[in-house]
Amino acid sequence: MSTDLPAGLPPVRVAFYNDPKVRSIAYQVALCVAVGFLIYEAASNAITNLERAHIASGFGFWHNTAGFDISQTLIEYSAQASTYGRAFWVGLLNTLLVAGLGVVFATILGFIIGIARLSKNWLVSKAATGYVETIRNIPLLLQLLFWYNAVLKTLPEMRDSYKIPGGIVLNNRGLFLPNPILGPGFYWVVIAFVAGIAASIVFYIWARKRQEQTGQQAPVFTTAFGLIIGLSILVLIAAGFPLSFGFPQAGRFNISGGMEVLPEFAALLFGLSIYTAAFIAEVVRAGILAVSRGQTEAAYSLGMRPQPTLRLIVVPQAMRVIIPPLTSQYLNLTKNSSLAVAIGYPDLVQVFTGTVLNQTGQAVEVVAITMAVYLTISLATSLLMNIYNSRIALVER
Amino acid sequence: MTMSEGDLAVMELRFVRAAMLESQPPPAGMRGAVGWLRENLLSTPFNITLTILIGLLFAWIVPDLIRFLLIDAVWSGADRDACRELVQNRTVGACWPFVFERWPYFVYGSYPLSERWRVDVFFVMLAIGVVWMLWLHAPRRGLGAIYFFAVVPITAFILLTGWRAIGLEPVDTVLWGGILVTIVVAWVGIVVSLPLGILLALGRRSPMPAVRLFSITFIEFVRGVPLVTVLFMASVMLPLFVPEQYSPDKLLRALVGIALFASAYMAEVVRAGLQAIPKGQFEGAMAVGLGYSQMMRLIILPQALKITIPNIVNTYIGLFKDTTLVFIVGIFDFLHTVEVSRIDPKWASPVTSTTGYAVAAIFYLIFCYAMSRYARATEARLGLSDRR
Q1: DSSP A170
Q2: Chain B partners of A46 at a C-beta cutoff of 8 Å?
Q3: Size of interface A-B (CB pairs under 8 A)
Q4: CA distances from residue A228 to A104, A231, A374, B67 in whole angstroms, order as listed
Q5: Angle CA A303–A305–A310, to nearest 5
Q6: What is the C-alpha to C-alpha distance for residues A283 and A306, in angstroms, rounded to an integer?
């Protein structure tokens, strides 16, 4: 093969095996053949192994009756009537429930601790540092086992339950909370709540426009608070208080009424929130430190007071740095919720990769479905993050 | 008092001090211990409240902790009766005799008693290797690398699994357990994930589409799913994928899962390091006629890995903590041996669980904290050389 050189020089001959293009194609073909061979070998071995073990393949089991109970079901489910497919949705919803609540608690705790680490108060910052260093360096699984076995399982038994004011009962069977019972007129309150949110949005847009035109600021937060919460309470009273609470009634062996929080759920939620909060605290700290001091000083020299400086100058810039790693912490929390299997909370992995896999023996299908769920959540989140990042990315001149 | 004309003229001009004043010490309330307290703990009412609250929190937790771990703790005894309040008629703290008795099990698992010296030899060899690699002024560090990455793995494999020909009884990995398994899993993860991670990172930045596609698929797939599912996959699917006679044992399956998982994370860490290398370095290397592997080996990777060391160590910390997850697929790592001992009827008492978990927590805390200190020290050292 010859290269284009100025006339007069003899064309340089390169052996074909030294040509980058040929080499690149050869490498890629080799890789494809190797991967293809591995997949082929794996698949053909799997087929022989499955046949010998008399395990069915395919997704037919999805419609078979499950026949096992699940301790926490957000949707209707019964061992006799429900299918494996139904069990899948129960597990998935349980995973999403614990992950969703965990994200909320971890964010609140993480932001408090992250800001506390930057506090000028020596004691506060040292305490926050101690928290982060300790929690981050102990495996999550150990923390979950500790909360479940050493804390929640050693609570008193049913008849010696702790009774906390407000109708809350706590014992080794779980936490029992009063559950709200909605009266017939409650939908008016819901309407008022939604109307309050809509009115707040309109007010926010109006206030922003006015500020852009005249420079006058309006108390957006207070107004929104009044519109959403105040209006709802007013309507609640006007409708004759269509809301009551069912209190848990402690019997000798059982508790009736109220809302039951399983100890497994409580331990998992507690452990996940505390663990992830330590990582979120570091993310928040790094984000705030990333806003250079000059920004604060410039705001002060323009005459802004500390509070608006924080709200209008520091936080928006810090958020740009905080949000991407924060999302990956949320994803970690969701993935870590699969440790539920160790303490017996019926999440997706426990229900599906645990019980369903044991009953059907269809390892390939069950593991593939479980992985596909987590993969979908991860990829969807990264997609949203990419869109968000491209929107808020610094516009460089 | 009369003034001379000259003095008046000076006064009319302006007051200018001819010599510097001695600087005054800050007011008594602003210096020393009192000043420090006012500045750091009591500067505003809000701060005072916080200080009091945190102080109360410490006053609530620390004495209880000390009482549990030391003052009320039981230090000797033969079985659970020593640690039960009903039997002892006093408040009982940590049950240390349980830990003392179970410690060999925590370290070796069910490894045969007569063969445990082999595990000790492995620990010592590994410790020598780690010190050799981490101690910057150690002699012959190149030799140390060969020792750590080649000599130790081969010797350890022969030593731990056994080889009849040289008189070592084979020991089934089912019997392995405790800290031995934790260290083996973590160490295999560490040794495999770095080279594999580098390869994947290079693959992800490769101009060859097939290689890039393969790397991206692998990395994103593994990073998108929880380690628990990877371990499940390794433990239930791997045996299906190989012919029956080669079916790997339980520990090996978990090791494959952990190593692949760690490699994907390592790949992203290394990729971040590669991205931080200016384009000029690549172009410079190509301009002096280096081939791809020479360019990577001699120019790019040394720089990229150097700036990545703190992140690599952080990944190792994560990996070390993640080794506990092999528990879920039924391997007796350190945490699993603690968990099994905790419910042993011989020692079952209300404080046994907490004692066991406390020991495990301290173990992981020491290892992880030491690694994170090392990462931070390295970061500081490298920062120093970059700033010049």
Answers
A1: E
A2: 237, 240-241
A3: 154
A4: 20, 6, 36, 49
A5: 120
A6: 23
Report yes or no: A40 at the B interface, CB cutoff 8 Å.
no
Topology classification of domain B171-333+364-387: MetI-like fold (1.10.3720)
Question: Which pTM was predicted?
Answer: 0.86
In contact, B83 and B352? CB cutoff 8 Å: yes
Considering only CA atoms, give the Rg of chain B.
31
- Could you say which of B40, B233, B357 has the minimum Cβ distance to residue A367? B233
Task: Among A21-30, A142-151, B11-20, name the one with the lowest average pLDDT.
Answer: B11-20
Which tokens in the block code for residue B343?
């419910």
pLDDT tens readout for residues A241-252: 777 777 777 666
- ipTM of model: 0.87
Inter-chain touch B209–A28, beta carbons under 8 Å:
yes
In degrees to the nearest 10, what's the CA dihedral of B330, B332, B336, B337? 140
User: Within the 122-161 window of chain A, which residues sit less than 8 Å (CB to CB) from chain B?
Assistant: 122-124, 127, 133-134, 136-142, 145-146, 149-150, 154
**Candidates B41, B50, B228, partner chain A, best to mutate (most A CBs within 10 A):** B228
Nearest to B92 by CA among B352, B362, B360, B361: B352
B338: nearest CA partner in chain A: A142
pLDDT tens for each residue of B296-306: 999 999 889 88
Give the separation between CA B197 and CA B269, rounded to whole angstroms.
Answer: 8
Q: What residue segments make up the domains of chain A, in order of their start?
A: 1-53, 84-178+247-392
Instruction: Report the candidate in B94, B91, B92, B97 with the shortest Cα–Cα distance to residue B78.
Output: B97
Q: Which of A31, A48, A353 sits opposite B211 (nearest CB)?
A: A31
Domain boundaries, chain B: 171-333+364-387
DSSP B347: T
Helical axes B209-224 vs B178-204, angle rounded to 10°: 140
3-state secondary structure of B110: coil
Chain A residues touching residue B220 (CB < 8 angstroms): 378-379
Output the CATH code of domain A84-178+247-392.
1.10.3720.10
The region, left, alpha or beta by phi > 0 then psi within -120 to 50, assigned to residue A241 is left
Q: Nearest CA of chain B to the CA of A77: how many Å?
A: 25
